Amino acid sequence: MTNARYLYVYVLVLVLVLCGWGSLTAGHAAAAETAPAEAASDVPNVIMLMSDDQGWGDVGFNGNDVVQTPNLDDMAASGVRFGRFYAAAPLCSPTRGSCLTGRYPFRYGILAAHTAGMRVGETTIPEMLKKKDYRTAFFGKWHIGWVKPDEVSPRGFYSPPSHHGFDEYFATTSAVPTWNPTVTPAGWDSWGGDEGKPWKGGAPYVQNGVEVTENMDGDDSRVIMDRVIPFVEANKEQPFFATVWFHTPHEPVVAGEEYKKLYAKSGSARQNYYGCITAMDEQIGRLRAKLRELGIEKRTVVFFCSDNGPSDGLAKKGIASAGGFHGHKHTMYDGGLLVPACAEWPGVIPAGTATDARCSTVDYLPTIAGICLGKSAIKKSLPIDGVDLMPLLTGQVDDLERDLFFGYRRLVQGIDGKAIISGDWKLLQEAKKDGKIRLYDLSKDPYEENDLSASAPERLSVLSKKLAEIEASCQRSRDGADYRY
């Protein structure tokens, strides 16, 4: 073969390779809908990060110029910032279940905190990914079932991460102090323990069924990340799924001295609140740096959100922030449901992407299934309430046309909070005794200041009917329609 022919073949092959690679990157979401990549190196890793009780306004990328979150801000700038990302409920446990199942909490029966536990009949993200030989692990606050088999409580039951598709776990059943998580902090006089005494027995963390007592001092986010990093390192050559649910900044809110010094001009409560958020942000930065050190950041998608709006008490004191939105945790207003959120996937999600399309924690499962497995992986017989976000994140669509439902229920206390968003309209039933019905046009009234329930009766009727239909569907699921007996 002549040199000219060699050169022609070489150039032809090079063009084909480059074109193929460009198509793979630009059209990843569309390709995932039909046939996911088979080679381990082509199958992306997935990391789901979640904070606890962090309000929409408690992060720099949503405009807070006091709290220092440089790593989250960089993550949002390097990928997508969600301006209107909703938790499925205005409190922790129901939302956590929605992240793993893609379903509304009213479907699987976790209607509030410390009630029930995740049912094994639910199909979770890690259960789906294990079929593709993913290694799966959970780290942090579980709160959708007890993690100790002999744990005794009037409500709830034993349902640890290992029952729901996780190969490994390092988990607590519920909240711990954000500094020295095994010790009740000074000045704390509420639930959990007595000041200076062991927190909930002194060994709230369980690792693969065994109580953990070593490496438990200092920042709780660091305690968690010390277990995450080795998992990532051990699985750098194969696809993995890591769920990391921080306790920060849920009460008891405590920060180390070095973090409180960053906010020396603030009062003690703000020093602890802002300080523990910055400490968590530092650990998120540590994780992002490790992905780059290992050279796997381009085949790893990282999601971040909070589980609900800011704590009632801290929001009312002006310490925690819902960013101007009305309400806070335990309310059906957007202040209780909107959360800070972003995602990063270098080379796939364009840097600097921002969207105000209404997204939700129920969207994680269909999005991750589309990325890693293809849409056919989702059971047709199991109602999934979320949608695949990749067409939105890659610029194929500008908005999402679907309704969103939210709920929080403790009938023993007279609480039956519900809400639906359909288009730009939101109908809610307040989460308190004799909860009033409210109607808002979010396009004109994003802070829910002008109730239109009396002046727009036709719209009220349409949304009330939709809400009743969704709730009835959830009731059927909750009563067993989706499971085999």
UniProtKB/TrEMBL annotation:
Residues 44-370 form the Sulfatase N-terminal domain. The keyword Signal applies. SUPFAM superfamilies: Alkaline phosphatase-like. Residues 1-31 form the signal peptide. Pfam families: Sulfatase. It comes from the Bacteria. Gene3D superfamilies: 3.30.1120.10, Alkaline Phosphatase, subunit A. Keywords: Hydrolase, Signal. InterPro entries: Alkaline_phosphatase_core_sf, Sulfatase, Sulfatase_N. Belongs to the sulfatase family. This is Sulfatase-like hydrolase/transferase.
